[in-house]
Amino acid sequence: MAKTPRKPSQPAPARAAKPLSAAEVRHFIAALARANPQPRTELHYRDPFTLLVAVVLSAQTTDAAVNRATPALFAAAADAAAMAALGADGIAPFIRSIGLWQSKARHIAELARLLVERHGGKVPGERAALEALPGVGRKTANVVLNVAFGQPTMAVDTHIFRLGNRTGLAPGKTPRAVEEALLKRLPPETLRDAHHWLILHGRYVCKARKPECWRCAAAPFCHFSPKTKPPAGSAAGKTAWKGAYHAT
Ligand code: SF4
């Protein structure tokens, strides 16, 4: 997961686009689906517990940074009981390269302890139980419910918040408003994968500072204007989006 979007009290981006029509929404998400048929989270994990820990660690940090830290951490503590036994002081040395490592070490130690105490060491598949854990907010719960439990949730991070407004896919002044608009507007059968399509699209193509419209599969259905042009001398063609959804 990427950075947390602006707080609900903060205004939406100035350039929120006119909402896409229902047909344009269908075409937009179908274009992303064709470009990236098997989307996956970029966080490395083995099971719901390691996914939960990785997502908590990813707040305000890149997935790549989390993936560099977690192999050694999970080798030392592969489940909730072992993580609780490790404790915050034992977790900290493994995650010092990650932003907010001190508070994250405390949260992970405590959430592991609570998983053992309340859920027999398992990660619960219910939103309220997840959000009752330290360090777990709505966005983290949405990722876990979607990826580990296959629920059609939408975790709105900074990329999806920007994309929903910039393109007209789901304009909204807060992350929650964008989440609800996406859940309402996207075809139900796409909801399981849509969160990955949109995050990866925002991360690699519809970038924050300058979207790369010239290589965007969804450009014909997007209301952002004017679209950006390819860099001078680029051999961009109609299929430039192929292979676009990977770290470089
Ligand atoms: S056309 Fe440009 S603004 Fe619209 S989704 Fe694609 S990259 Fe983003």
Q: Concise description?
A:
The protein is mainly alpha-helical and about 250 residues long.
Structural summary, described in words:
- There is one protein chain.
- With 248 residues, the protein is mostly helical.
- The protein has a domain at 48-136: Hypothetical protein, domain 2 (Endonuclease III, domain 1), CATH 1.10.340.30.
- Helix content is 50%, strand content 0%.
- Helix 3 (63-76) packs across helix 4 and helix 4 (80-95) packs antiparallel against helix 5.
- The two termini are 17 Å apart.
- Iron/sulfur cluster (SF4) is lined by residues 166-167, 205-206, 211-213, 216, 218-219, 222, 224, 227.
- Residues 166-167, 205-206, 211-213, 216, 218-219, 222, 224, 227 line the site of iron/sulfur cluster (SF4).
Q: Helical content, roughly? A: 40-55%
CATH class descriptor name of one domain = Mainly Alpha
Major sheet characteristics: none
CATH fold node name of one domain: Endonuclease III, domain 1
Termini Cα gap: 17 Å
Structural class: mainly alpha
The assembly state of the depicted protein chains is single chain
Instruction: Kindly state the number of beta strands.
Output: 0
Uncertain residue segments: 8-12
What share of residues are in beta strands? under 5%
What do the pLDDT scores average to? Answer: 91
The radius of gyration over CA amounts to: 19 Å
Shape: elongated
CATH superfamily of one domain: Hypothetical protein, domain 2
Second-tier CATH architecture of one domain: Orthogonal Bundle
